[in-house]
Structure formats: structure tokens, C-alpha cells
Design brief:
The structure holds 2 protein chains of 2 kinds.
Chain A (H helix, E strand, L loop, with lengths): L4 E3 L2 E5 L4 E6 L4 E9 L5 E8 L4 E4 L2 E6 L4 E6 L8 E9 L5 E3 L3 E6 L1
Parallel strand pairs in A: 2-11
Antiparallel strand pairs in A: 1-3, 3-8, 4-5, 4-9, 6-7, 7-8, 9-10, 9-11
Chain B lengths: L4 E3 L2 E4 L5 E6 L6 E8 L3 E9 L2 E5 L6 E5 L5 E5 L8 E8 L13 E2 L3 E5 L1
Parallel strand pairs in B: 2-11
Antiparallel strand pairs in B: 1-3, 3-8, 4-5, 4-9, 5-6, 7-8, 9-10, 9-11
Classes of the chains: A mainly beta, B mainly beta.
Chain lengths: 111, 118
């Protein structure tokens, strides 16, 4: 089964609003990464947060990690049309160093 | 610096055939990973190569195989194609093994090869 599960599966918001996506995982991790994928294309790395970090920022992105709850959230502030994409969390398992992706959240920014 | 390239971009095959997909990593990158992406299963890890050695393997049947050459270029092969093999196959490269050192090494993805099996 998937290690990471994103929630919600799909999200539509108005341009300018904030978008929040969540990721839950099952086993102990080394770190967690978020990726973006525009329709039918390759993935683009957005941000990495280590297991000993609680929050990280990159431009309009804010990622939090709660290892006690085995969950992470990605916040995109002041959304733009170009943010329309699928967002995936990926966990690096500390038992075998494999990178496991969730099924993603499809974000649609409405004009 | 050129990004990760994958060839071909699109491929149509029939059941029972075999296929070879190619991936050229970013210059200087020694690690290449392969993923299969389908609407139902999402992104599934296939294999990971580093310095011509397979370092990790996902839960796929033996019909799926791969290799890495001395110039870090990688190929994956799928034999005896099934309808369920239709997917977007993504290749990603990184300087080192992305899972090592807590996976702090960023993976750079190629645009993918869209395989359709009829």
C-alpha cells in the first residue's frame, strides 16, 4: 500500500486564496519531500523537510511536519493560476532508504 | 545544464511485445531512478541505479528490468507487455543516491515516456 496519502484528493480554490494539502504516512521516515507535477509532465521538487525539522519555508510555500502524528502539510499562499498542478508528498523510509510517493492532490486555481 | 531526457516520449505497443526506454541523466549525476505512474496506482518505484549497480528495487514482476551504463545513462526494459503496463514511465536523476544521508539529495525528473499497450 502507499506510504504517503495526500488529502484532499482534489482541491479547487479562487486565485489569491491559500491552498493547504496534507500528507499522512505510516512508517518512520528520514525526511519528507513535496513535488509538483503539471499535467502529464515530470515532477518538480519543491521542498524537503527533515525528520528533525518542524517547519520550512520557500517563497510562497510553507511545509510543516509532525512526526508524532506522521503527517505533513503544504501551504501555498496567495495562489496563482500557474499553481494548478498535482502535488505529491514523498517519504524516504529510514529502514531501506526507498522513496515512496503518495497519490497526490490535484489543485485547480480558478480565475 | 541540460535536464533529464527520456526517449522516446510516446510509444504504442501491443500485448506480448517488449519495449526499451532510455533515460539520460543530468551531466555529473550518478544516480538514476525509475517510476511508473498510472491513474489508479499513482507513482510506483521501479528501480534505482548508482554507478551501474541496482541499489533498490520496487515490487514489480521480473518482466521489468533495467541497467545503467558507465556514462550513467539508463535503460529499462519491459518484456511480454500487458495492458496494465500502459503508464507514464518517469526517470529521475540525482548526484548521489537520493535515499542516502536521509534523502537530502534532490531528484530531477525527466518528462516521461508515455507507453500505451494495445
Amino acid at each position: 500500500s502507499q506510504q504517503g496519502e495526500e488529502d484532499p484528493q482534489a482541491l479547487s480554490i479562487q486565485e489569491g486564496e491559500n491552498a493547504t494539502m496534507n500528507c499522512s504516512y505510516k512508517t518512520s521516515i528520514n525526511n519528507l519531500q513535496w513535488y509538483r507535477q503539471n499535467s502529464g509532465r515530470g515532477l518538480v521538487h519543491l521542498i524537503l523537510i527533515r525528520s528533525n525539522e518542524r517547519e520550512k519555508h520557500s517563497g510562497r510555500l510553507r511545509v510543516t511536519l509532525d512526526t508524532s502524528k506522521k503527517s505533513s502539510s503544504l501551504l501555498i499562499t496567495a495562489s496563482r493560476a500557474a499553481d494548478t498542478a498535482s502535488y505529491f508528498c514523498a517519504t524516504v523510509l529510514n529502514r531501506d532508504d526507498k522513496i515512496i510517493f503518495g497519490k497526490g492532490t490535484r489543485l485547480h486555481i480558478l480565475p | 545544464k541540460a535536464g533529464v531526457t527520456q526517449t522516446p516520449r510516446y510509444l504504442i505497443k501491443t500485448r506480448g511485445q517488449q519495449v526499451t526506454l532510455s533515460c539520460s541523466p543530468i551531466s555529473g549525476h550518478r544516480s538514476v531512478s525509475w517510476y511508473q505512474q498510472t491513474p489508479g496506482q499513482g507513482l510506483q518505484f521501479l528501480f534505482e541505479y548508482f554507478s551501474e549497480t541496482q541499489r533498490n528495487k520496487g515490487n514489480f514482476p521480473g518482466r521489468f528490468s533495467g541497467r545503467q551504463f558507465s556514462n550513467s545513462r539508463s535503460e529499462m526494459n519491459v518484456s511480454t507487455l500487458e495492458l496494465g503496463d500502459s503508464a507514464l514511465y518517469l526517470c529521475a536523476s540525482s548526484l548521489e543516491l537520493p535515499g542516502l544521508a536521509g534523502g537530502t539529495d534532490t531528484q530531477y525528473f525527466g518528462p516521461g515516456t508515455r507507453l500505451t499497450v494495445l
